[in-house]
Amino acid sequence: MKQSLLLVFLFCTLAAFSQSSGSINGKMIDSEYSNEPLAFANVVVKGTGKIAYSDMEGLYNINNLKPGKYILEFSFVGYKTHALTVEVIPNETTKVDVKMHANTPTTNKVAFTNTTIDENTTALN
Question: Measuring CA to CA, which residue among 76, 93, 96 is closest to residue 84?
Fold first, then answer.
């Protein structure tokens, strides 16, 4: 009886360890201006509902992720959204640093026309 209880205990312990989670952390920086940290930028783990925000030093942390591959989407106002596939390994922290690039405004051609009004023109009713 003691041996069977010991086996059950060991089996439950192994099952608990096999379902261990991992985490992802890193830093978001601005590649355009001296690699300054981006505070309050967004990191979304697609398909999980998990969102993280970078702190004042551009650091973010996402905990309790099941092992596997995830798509991380990094975004910040005025910057291009950046997506990466990352693999989470049980009981490990995966480090992902990201350099964000500013959105370059697109310019469309604008045509200006000059219209003059003759002083003798009367308004139409």
Answer: 96
Q: What is the CATH number of the domain that holds 79?
A: 2.60.40.10
Which is nearest to 98 in space by CA: 52, 67, 66, 47?
A: 52
Q: 10-residue block means of pLDDT along the chain (125 residues)?
A: 48 54 97 90 96 98 97 96 96 96 71 62 55
- Token output for 42: 């967004």
Query: Rounded to two decimals, what is the model's pTM?
Result: 0.68
Residue 32 CB burial class (10 angstroms; 0-12, 13-18, ≥19): middle
Q: Domain of 49?
A: 18-100
Residue 84 covered by a domain: yes
